[in-house]
Amino acid sequence: MKVEILPALTDNYMYLLIDQDTREAAIVDPVQPQKLLEIIKKEDVVLRAILTTHHHWDHARGNEELAQLLPGLQVFGADERIGALTHRVSHGQELAFGTIRVRCLFTPCHTSGHMCYFMWEDDSPDAPALFSGDTLFVGGCGQFFEGTAEQMHTNLTQILGTLPKDTKVFCGHECTVRNLKFALKVEPENEVVKEKLAWAKQRDDEDLPTVPSTLQEEFLYNPFLRLTEEAVQRFTGRTDPVEVLRALRSHRDNFKKPKERPNPQAMLAFDWGLFGPFLEKK
Ligand SMILES: [Zn+2]
Fold first, then answer.
1. Is 55 noted as a catalytic residue in this protein?
2. What DSSP string describes 216-276?
3. Burial of 273 (0-12, 13-18, 19+ CB in 10 A)
4. How far apart are CA 29 and CA 54, in angstroms?
5. Neighbours of 197 (CB within 10 A)
6. How far apart are CA 14 and CA 59, in angstroms?
7. Which of 19, 29, 56, 79 is catalytic?
8. 153 in catalytic set
9. Cα pseudo-dihedral 203, 166, 216, 197, rounded to 10
10. Which is the catalytic residue, given 79, 114, 134, 153?
């Protein structure tokens, strides 16, 4: 199985999966159809299916257009809000495209209908691959928009965390540097976080993706998979793993990108209440 990493929008990824024997292909989260169609032509493959992780527009917006352009295209997903959906899949369901085998792993929380896709080929030396959408990121996890810390805990520890350690992790967004900056705040002494952050910054500078990682690596630097580590518990002031996760996510939500912070003058004005009338109009 060949995985082509296709950057889309500002920091999304689409993933084209190719069975190199039959030249059949499937695509995960094709938000930019025209870009995908160019690649399909260049690679000379037949696109059989779309695998949608969740209904958010930056993952599913391209479905309708592709379904119109490619009649017979199968569209998989676990949420009725996903455009052009033809096959609603459930947890544990298995699919096959050529020699590529897929197991659907239901991970509700970021959205209530979020599905991850675990893929492998029988009799292949290649490591399996996980397409984790906005549930598990390199160095982080997705926001809890439609779910609870209990659900994300199940997702990370029981559903995804128990996959083979050499599983390659392909996530929905390039947000590794920001995630690892937060990870370093959580665990300032963690050398693996420092090393991975330096590497990720370098990749960013060269405009190269930081995906895939491996599950094994994630356990070493991703605080959301390190809930029982003493340093992570100390940072959150909690010991119960679900509570540690809840507190971590809440800290991460407030760990804004620098550009999202008001500039110092605006903050001063805000402190003095000068923006009051403007705020009231909102
Ligand atoms: Zn999302």
1. no
2. HHHHHH-GGG-TTSHHHHHHHT--SHHHHHHHHHHHHHTS--GGGSPPHHHHHHHHTTTTH
3. exposed
4. 8
5. 20
6. 8
7. 56
8. no
9. 0
10. 134
Residue pLDDT, tens place only, 140-158: 999 999 999 999 999 999 9
Does 134 participate in catalysis according to the annotation?
yes
Model pLDDT for residues 229-269, shown as the tens digit of each residue: 999 999 999 999 999 999 999 999 999 766 544 555 544 44
Q: Is 91 a catalytic residue?
A: no
Specify the pTM. 0.91
Q: How many CA atoms, within 13 angstroms, populate the side-chain half-sphere of residue 154? A: 10
Give residue for tokens 């996959």. Answer: 163
The β-bridge relationship of strands 12-19 and 24-28 is antiparallel
Domains by residue range for the chain, with CATH: 2-260 (3.60.15.10)
Check if the beta carbon of residue 216 is closer than 8 Å to that of residue 198: no
Cα 134 off chain centre by: 3
Decide: 153 and 189 in contact? Cβ < 8 Å. Answer: no
- What distance in Å separates the CA atoms of residue 76 and residue 85, rounded to the nearest whole number? 6
- Assign residue 139 a region (left: φ > 0; alpha: ψ between -120 and 50; beta: otherwise): left
